[in-house]
Amino acid sequence: MTQHKWVSIPSEGIGSIPRPDNLLEATIGYESDVVPREVLYQTQLNATETTLRELDELTHSEVLTDGEQTKPSFLTYPIYELINKSYRFDDKCFKITFSDGHVRTLPRLIKAPFQYATYAHKYLDVAKKFTKKPIKQAIITASALSMVYLPTLFNMTAIENYSREEFLQDLCNECEKDIRLCLTHGAHTVQLDFTEARLSLKIDPTGHLLKEFISINNRVLDRFTPEEQKKIGVHVCPGGDCDSYHSYKIDYTLVLPDLFQLHLRNFYLQLSSEKDRVKILNCIKQYMKPHHRIFVGVIDPINPEIETAQAVRDRILEAAQYIPLEQMGTTDDCGYSPFADDRSRSRKTCYEKVKARIQGTKLAEQILNFGRA
Ligand SMILES: [Zn+2]
């Protein structure tokens, strides 16, 4: 009998956990000039410390996130502080419409050059003060922010002497810096939130926009060595927010072949909420590459019901028929609160779901390893 080396199945969350009430209140108070900055900052620190501790103690996760407690949203954090200076919200902006009819708007660039005010390592530096465990840091893709200046598609006003190509150069420089700073500041992995991948096929069913998004992101990723690319990943999903999606109806299998062209290693893929998981798994099997790691979504944050560890185990055993054990990982289908004001789930429910993921992953790991003996 051949003795196989034990193969662990890594498990990582996507990023966000709902913010506590006192943090949301302090944020609103700060924006209305009734709460001083120091009070908001202390409330943010407390929320970050509590989230890291609870994720550690209540779920036994090996890799932690700060729960994105101080990000205004997964999408706008780099430019949030420049709104009304370099960016503006108006009717010419790119808008995302969700299945329940609610809309999220991306501000548009009104003043060159494109630049970030906040880099994600800021969150990582704070989180590192509170834990010795590895920390994953999520960042936004260059492709998502490419929508802040797209005069041709959305009738945005072009900025004088600032071509789309000049904009793309500035954008790629900023996104590269965002990733690189997270890596040099010790992130366990850096995850690109690429929720607009599936959305792009809703805007442009020809797939041209999706290919352009992949190409913009690879323009950034190609600046990293293969060793660095091993610590970089991407998350895709149908865009959950306030218990609805923006692109669930778009065929996932039209996104995956292009997605696997990204020059990085780790794929955090929504899967558990799909109606036909076998079809998706077949597509993953066909297009994934030997150096990829596939973190399959085994928990659905949109579903208020808490999954059992056994249900998680079974989803992994199903996925293991298509993905080699050495390339398998598990994750949640999405974050629990990608926009700061999304309070669809309680924090307690989120932790119970994460705990089920961790326990179910261990159960599957045992079965799959013993099955190889
Ligand atoms: Zn997501």
Low-confidence stretches: none
CATH uppermost class = Alpha Beta
The strands making up the biggest β-sheet line up spatially as 5-6-7-10-11-12
The assigned CATH architecture is Alpha-Beta Barrel
Span between termini: 7 Å
What is the alpha-carbon Rg in Å?
Answer: 20 Å
Biggest sheet overview: 6 strands, parallel
Order of helices and strands: HHEEEEHEHHHEHHHEEEHEHEHEH
Overall geometry: globular
What is bound: which ligands? zinc ion
Percent range of helical residues: 25-40%
User: What structural category characterises the helix and strand content?
Assistant: alpha/beta
Total of domains: 1
**Beta-strand residue percentage:** 5-15%
Number of helices: 13
Could you tell me the number of beta strands? Answer: 12
| Fold-level CATH name | TIM Barrel
What is the typical, i.e. mean, pLDDT? 94
Structure explained in plain terms:
The protein has a 6-stranded parallel beta sheet with strand order 5-6-7-10-11-12. The chain has a two-stranded antiparallel sheet with strand order 1-4. Strands 2-3 form a two-stranded antiparallel ribbon. The chain is built from 13 helices and 12 strands. It has 373 residues and is an alpha/beta fold. Helix 6 crosses helix 8. It has a single domain, classed as TIM Barrel. It binds zinc ion (ZN). The site of zinc ion has 7 residues, from loops.
